[in-house]
Design a protein that fits this description.
The chain contains 18 helices and 14 strands. The protein is α/β, with parallel strands linked by helices and about 400 residues long. Strands 9-10-11-12-14-13 form a 6-stranded mixed β-sheet. The chain has a 5-stranded parallel β-sheet with strand order 2-3-4-1-5, with helices on both faces. A 3-stranded antiparallel β-sheet has the order 6-8-7. It folds into 2 domains: about 120 residues, P-loop containing nucleotide triphosphate hydrolases (Rossmann fold), CATH 3.40.50; about 260 residues, Arc Repressor Mutant, subunit A, CATH 1.10.10.
């Protein structure tokens, strides 16, 4: 079993808050991580709210929770019972009066928007939230990884069963089934009445346009639906943590900025499955290869910087950078991504770095060793960059002595 980066953070939050919400797409490993908490909470109760038997146990949730004091209760797919959040608030407050403060509930959810709204309205000040993504390079690759290891993770993506499959064909089959199950079963179970064929076409179009500016009118024309409907469907895919809407940088630099967000299918393995690309050769021969790699790297780096602000920067005069990370320390890192063993940057990158007064300039490429190039740019691979970003975040979060 691979050690998940957020495991320690999850354990610490359970010692500080009455409830912790663990968010992540289906099959990312939430249940495995939650059940592992039984090592420190051996009497923990686990209920999968997709099962009728578990839902029956919560016919009277208040009575059920009060009958299990001083026990961690793990509720999986908690968005299935939206009315439970107000009851949790009352139970938490009652337990607090009895001296039981932290580690009461672990809430697992695969629909972040609905869960965040419900929990923030009912459990304000009582719940902490943490996201579990599919496997990141820092979790599954050794420090001496080969280029082939990184390429495999890029092609298959980070969903555990896709990454661990014994062959490329088996991994591809799992991802295809995953997509079909989401469209035909999981999304309808959440309530939205959306034609599965329309949503698949939209998802596939987003994969074809990986990393492009979101143009709802263009997508709407291709799908023969309204731009408002496209926006609602994209919102749903973002809510399910399958798509990322990366905002444009919005500060004031006295330049005409591009305001539309970029859109990425968050897992590179799903990009390739949606486009029917089963292996590395198929990916490299497809026009999506460069932007697929960009999306893969962007996910690695954003997930290494929890609490940081991520955006991209583009102006009408050609200044452009793929990713801007702004840290709580006040630092601004500008990051360009290239799928090349001898990467270079354009004039637009230098203009963007100057506009943003960049603290650090990174060029991410599939290289084995990090090295500097002119004008203070550091070339490195995604693993090295993610580790550097995570270290920077950790240093910034250390209390002052």
């Amino acid at each position: 079993m691979y050690k998940r980066i957020i495991n320690q953070q999850l354990g610490e939050l359970l010692t500080q808050f009455p409830a912790v919400a663990l968010l992540g797409p289906r099959q990312a490993g939430k249940t495995t991580l939650a059940i592992a908490q039984k090592e420190s909470h051996p009497d923990a109760l686990y209920l999968d709210l997709e099962l009728p038997s578990a839902q029956r146990q919560l016919d009277d949730p208040e009575a059920f929770f009060l009958a299990h004091p001083k026990q961690l209760v793990i509720l999986d797919e908690v968005q299935r019972l939206p009315g439970i959040f107000s009851i949790l608030r009352g139970v938490i407050d009652q337990r607090r009066r009895q001296g039981e403060d932290a580690g009461q509930f672990l809430l697992l959810g695969s629909a972040s928007g609905a869960l965040l709204q419900q929990s923030s309205e009912s459990l304000a000040g009582r719940v902490a939230q943490v996201e579990l993504t599919p496997f990141q390079a820092r979790e599954v690759l050794a420090n001496d990884f080969s280029a082939a290891d990184m390429d495999t993770l890029w092609v298959r993506g980070g969903f555990p069963l896709a990454w661990l499959a014994h062959s490329a064909a088996t991994s591809m089959t799992w991802r295809e089934v995953f997509i079909t199950t989401y469209l035909e079963k999981d999304i309808p179970a959440l309530g939205p009445r959306i034609p599965a064929t329309t949503l698949r076409r939209l998802w596939t179009m987003l994969a074809h346009n990986q990393g492009a500016l979101l143009d709802q009118s263009k997508l709407a024309a291709a799908l023969a639906i309204s731009g408002q409907t496209v926006g609602r469907y994209v919102d749903l895919l973002c809510d399910l943590m399958l798509v990322r809407r990366l905002p444009a940088w919005s500060g004031n630099v006295g330049k005409r900025l591009i305001r539309a967000p970029k859109v990425y299918v968050r897992d590179s393995g799903l990009v390739h499955a949606l486009l029917g690309l089963p292996d590395l050769d198929a990916v490299l021969s497809h026009p999506v290869a460069g932007v697929s790699w960009e999306g893969f790297v962007v996910e690695q780096l954003i997930n290494a910087a929890p609490g940081g602000q991520a955006s991209f920067y583009r102006t009408s005069n050609g200044a452009e950078v793929d990713l801007v990370l702004e840290f709580r320390s006040g630092q601004t890192w500008v990051i360009e991504v290239k799928r090349s063993s001898a990467p270079t940057v354009s004039k637009g990158f230098h203009l963007a770095a100057q506009d943003l007064s960049a603290s650090r300039k990174l060029l991410i490429a599939p290289v084995q060793q990090a090295y500097p190039i002119k004008e203070g740019i550091e070339v490195m691979n995604p693993m090295q960059a993610a580790q550097m970003i995570a270290l920077n975040v950790a240093k910034a979060n250390q209390p002052a002595i």
